[in-house]
Design a protein that fits this description.
The protein is mainly alpha-helical. Helices cover about 35% and strands about 5% of the residues. The longest helix is centred in the middle third of the chain and has 15 residues. The protein is globular.
């Protein structure tokens, strides 16, 4: 199933870091998206520049997302130049449907961001989770959080390779 290998950065960044699809997939020609250079390996940070972050009313939308050890271990061997997800939206959507069909599942809307927020909140503050996601605390609490037992999120972020 090597045809789905390009998905790995998407799953890691969305599911383990809460990155939005619109920050990874270019929907218009020349639209900026996250690139490998935006990952600061030596500082364990992912930088989401203002022009890449989802448009909101905020004057400055840039943010820094902590890069967990597990995510770094998976992503570092994949790093190259240019966009992290260099695919068109049509290829992304077509491949997503094909992957879901092969796995016999349906991807719920925002499922990876929901999982990130839910599991991260079991051992991080709401403020830290919201800041990493680029959302207000009230938005994260209202739309992304399912209450789990404290601490269970550590396993979600542990390397399983």
């Amino acid at each position: 199933m090597t045809e789905f290998q390009f998905w790995l950065p998407y799953f890691v960044l969305a599911g383990l870091r809460g990155v939005r699809t619109c920050e990874l997939i270019r929907y218009k020609p020349n639209e900026p998206v996250l690139e490998w250079k935006d990952i600061f390996w030596n500082k364990n940070l992912i930088f989401v520049p203002h022009e890449i972050a989802k448009e909101t009313r905020a004057r400055d939308r840039k943010r820094y997302i902590p890069l967990e050890k597990a995510a770094a271990e998976i992503l570092r061997p994949l790093a190259s130049n240019g966009a992290i997800m260099p695919v068109s939206p049509s290829h992304f959507n077509r491949s997503r449907r094909k992957l879901a069909s092969a796995m016999r599942i349906k991807f719920p809307e925002n499922c990876l961001r929901n999982s990130y927020a839910t599991y991260a909140l079991t051992f991080r503050s709401l403020g830290d989770v919201a800041k990493a996601m680029g959302d207000a605390e009230a938005t994260v609490k209202r739309y992304y959080i399912e209450t789990l037992e404290p601490g269970v999120g550590h396993e979600w972020f542990a390397p399983k390779l």
